[in-house]
Amino acid sequence: MIFNNDIICAIATPHGNGAIAVLRVSGKDSLKILPKFFKPTTRTKKFEAWRVYHGIVVDSIGKETDEVLVTIFKNPKSYTGEDSFEIACHGNYTLATEILQIIQNCGSRLAEPGEFTLRALLNGRIDLAQAESVNALISAKSHLGRANSLKFVEGIFSAQIAKIRQELTDFLSSLELELDFSEEDVEFSTKEEKIAKLTSLSEIIQKLLETYSYSSVLKDGIRIVLAGKPNVGKSSVFNSLIGKKRAIISEIAGTTRDYIEGFLTIAGVECTLVDTAGIHDSVDFLEIEGIEFSHEQINDADLVLHIFDNLEDLSEGKEFFKKFHTIHVLNKADKLTETPKLKTNQVLVSASTGKGLSELRTKISDFIQKLLPSEETIVITEKRHFECLSNASDFIEGACSTIEIGQTQEFTAEFIRGSISELETLLGKITDDDVLNNIFGNFCIGK
Fold this sequence. Notes:
By secondary structure, the chain is α/β, with parallel strands linked by helices. It is built from 15 helices and 13 strands.
């Protein structure tokens, strides 16, 4: 992706019809092409920044295409840091594509994926960590995931990294000053003070690195697998939890031969619910295949719901399911003659009457809450961020080692420079085109 002064345009809203569609246009001379196709209701000699204009989009022969609103943004405070404007038209996607073609015919080109955000980066509106988080915010699958990504977009994470970088830079300056006065035997800080300072910075980085363990839940949600013997009501519980009929229910054992996925939100986290084939001994080839799939799904699960319909099945399944995070679900409660005494990781439900399903959701929610960080925690979710911080921490550790064993300060300074370089790479102050292409290639067009 090559940055230049082209005027770029794209539809910013999702594909499909809706109330409105939004098109974005950005570039140094973008406002010069606006009069070629937009006729404002109120005559104006010049489009002023931060104003919304009502008018008509016309094609090359003056034919009216749609009634629209145009919002004007001026550099350097626009999203991209360039002169730009947005068009809100009626939400027919075919109509939006017609307007897009008109804009291209007037001297612009279709933006590449993520090019608006790339321009924001290259024009100094945001840093690379913020740019990556724009995409993470759009694709977040939970309330906490969205809130976390917003902290990155707003620059809270970047400010932390910039502070660490500045303190390392100050430390390096002090070292280099000591080197300048080395012949005069001047020491600005003791060995212990140097190590204490670097250790405190390393601890801050380590705390950030520890949050990476939460990244999977925030980005991908959690996977909940329903497992058990055939005909114990797994599919009924599955349908009840997702609130619609997705799995076929039958009195015939072995009806489910493949796994089926459904989605629901619990505790603000997107959960992928998986209904699997019943686990039992079988000679039927298709059933055997389905049972193998079941074992694979169980192994990949964050949480297993062991569905059974009698206490004998519970005792048989305990040994197998103890290897996994499991909630044991006694189904068909409406058919029991007496209520059994259950433990904390067990729940009594009836998929047919709805009894106990609320308690089951609560137990799932309690499990999810244990996987989540506090809302105040800034969680690293990008592998690139994790690697840069890990490398920065390793360089600081190396610097401490050189101080402890009494090596010359040139060695210490080199390690500090390495750590600073990693933090600058994280923020995008040092990067290459391959990294940028990889990051922005995952964006949607129009962002």
